[in-house]
Amino acid sequence: MAYVLLETKGHVGIVTISRPKALNALNADVLNDLSNVFTQVAKDDNIYVVVLTGEGRSFVAGADISAMRDMTAVEGQEFAALANSTFLQIENLAKPVIAAVNGFALGGGCELSMACDMRIASEKALIGQPEVGLGITPGFGGTQRMPRIIGYGKAMELILSTRKVKADEAYAIGLVDKVVPHDQLMDEAMKLAESIAVMPQVAVRQAKLCIRKGMQADINTALAFESEAFGLCFSTEDKHESMSAFLEKREAKNFKNR
Ligand code: DAK
Fold it and tell me: Does the predicted TM-score (pTM) go above 0.85?
């Protein structure tokens, strides 16, 4: 892939968006590469957890404004369909995805980070939704995901005023889950990824599915998802091994992820 790199360390897949000259702005080529890499990640049984980051001083500085400026309506629709399907592919991936926000996460970049399951930010991160200032609304899920993550009032303020927040404020309002010194970002993201990768993966994936689906459902439906997932885990060898290990006062070993 020209614009998106995939490297594997243990059971962690590291996906790096690499178009640093344009601060990793998303054009159709980058989105196609991102989609192809996530298709590969979904199929790779060796990858349990994904870390998504950007090369250089930006995570993603948004959709590519130079590509969008002259798009026709039909091209705009195609671009939107490609972007939305790629972001949904990430959100719906069975495996957890951690955004390591290394710098600018603006517009589509902020939206991309919010399509991930967890966000760790470098203290150099700058995050926001500048679209309204460009005469458009956020279009890659920002109006929907941001209020779900940080609440109605704050999402309104940030989207309508287009104010960008630095890492410490992003942490204070819950837009990122942790802030770390810039040179420790990938180590911290890997540490979190590895702490998830050592768990029994059926339980990890079912828990992600329950949280994701449950957030979009009423409480009765959401609890039904949870009961179903809970029951399903009782059919796994890993649940038997984990519980046996506890009762036998030993470390659980050799999870089979089934
Ligand atoms: N698109 C294209 N190029 C970009 C870019 C972007 N979003 N952001 C930066 N670049 C390019 C710059 O043009 C510059 O290119 P050269 O001039 O060197 O060729 C290079 O990256 C370095 O940028 P700067 O020289 O500006 O660097 P600074 O450090 O001075 O400033 C900055 C960094 C991130 C503050 C600044 O570049 C900036 O404000 N960038 C724009 C950020 C932004 O407004 N992002 C939101 C884009 S709108 C849709 C759905 C969603 C969307 C659209 C449609 N549909 C459903 C159809 C989403 C829209 C957006 O994301």
Answer: yes
